Amino acid sequence: MKISNKIMLLFSVLTFSIILLMSFFVYYLANRYSFGDFYKRLEIRAYLTANAAYPPNGTDTTAYNIIRDRHLEKLPSEEEYIIPVEYAAGRFVRPARPNLPYAFYDEVVRQGHNTYRYKERFFAGILISHGGGRSIVVVSAVNEYRGQYMAELRKILVICFAVAAALIVGAGVFFSQYILAPVHHIMQQVKSISSNNLHLRVSTKAGQDGQDEVGELAGTFNNMLDRLETAFETQNNFVSNASHELGTPLTAIIGEAELALRGERDNESLRASISRMLTEAERLNHITRSLLQLAQTGFDGKKQHWELIRTDELLFAVKQMTDRLSPNNHVSIDYSLFPEEEDKMSIMGNFQLLELAITNIVTNAIKYSSNQPVSLALAATDTKNIVIVKDNGIGIPAQDLPYIFSPFFRASNTSRFEGYGIGLPLTNTIIRMHKGEIIVESRMNEGTEIRVVLPSVG
């Protein structure tokens, strides 16, 4: 079932339920009111009957009879009874007519009035005092008005409910379409976007401010399209550069092998050819392993083991790894920014991957500064851990900074240094997997500062 139909159905059912509940409530109150109104009519007639039978001093019985007969509508099957209050053996003497329970008369004597109902006949009784003692005046009638009144009310409620149902269904259809119109607009735009036009973006309908849920949905789609476009471009660049980088050493190996197989060659030239093939094979092996590492890291983190990591211990591990890779390095740990609270130096992640990522940055700093001093520092806030690597090397040209995380890209001033342009892209992938970011600040011939920002543990 479509969401628009669900909205319409839910809206209709909810409104129907409220209207039905209110209708029952109105019907119940009207029914109660009809009872009270009829009892009030009977009581009025009982008082008039009592005053006509026992008029107060200075009044005329005829006047009460005229008022009752001319100005009061006679009720259906109306009957009047005047019953003297008499007791025998301590018990009220109940008359043969009307045949009412003792409790009715006892309540009239105690309270001065009472009502009673038997099927559709209603009774109202009052107690009056007169010169000869006390009497109970009872007036009864059949409440035919109630049936007519309630039948008319039911008819009105049914008609109103039918009209309301039609209006509610119509309003539900209109509002469901109106509410989902921006979503349909986005759907039409998304359907038109494919791998050939990933540059297109989703826009909301005119008149929307983009701050509601539909605007957030459009923004989410656009962010996804940004990532997809970047991924497609990166993939295309990766395939293009990888084929070139892998093809170069393979061509060199094949060429040297062909030369080695041509005729007789002295041992020295054979050794030179084999040495060049070994160098190119090692280069090919390094590129292949780097590409494998880059592919295996992924972005979902589901294949990796995540644990609580102390970032100060991570820095010490990076220093030990750097000492093994470059025994003569001048890397030093700067403790001046270390936080005083140890619990701030905690993150969630994969220790080996983070060690690899930061080691790549440190080894690059050593290489591109010609083994000058490199500073490795750690700072922390309540929400972030920041690893800072600073060198005094050749720096990165400003025009090359946007591309340093692209696979196989190498800055224009690095031609005299050996490298394949895979270390920083691998590092960037690992840091993004840990929901962090890398900030690079660099000046030509003055050095580079790289800050790795990682989210702290709560």
UniProtKB/TrEMBL annotation:
CDD domains: HAMP, HATPase, HisKA. This is histidine kinase. GO terms for molecular function: kinase activity. InterPro entries: HAMP_dom (IPR003660), HATPase_C_sf (IPR036890), HATPase_dom (IPR003594), His_kinase_dom (IPR005467), HisK_dim/P_dom (IPR003661), HisK_dim/P_sf (IPR036097), HssS/ArlS-like (IPR050398), Sig_transdc_His_kin-like_C (IPR004358). The chain crosses the membrane at residues 7-30, 122-144, 156-180. SMART domains: HAMP (SM00304), HATPase_c (SM00387), HisKA (SM00388). It is found in: Cell membrane. It is a multi-pass membrane protein. It comes from Chitinophaga pollutisoli. Residues 241-458 form the Histidine kinase domain. Its EC number is 2.7.13.3. Keywords: ATP-binding, Cell membrane, Kinase, Membrane, Nucleotide-binding, Phosphoprotein, Transferase, Transmembrane, Transmembrane helix, Two-component regulatory system. Residues 177-233 form the HAMP domain. It catalyses: ATP + protein L-histidine = ADP + protein N-phospho-L-histidine. The keyword Cell membrane applies. It is an enzyme of class 2 (transferase).
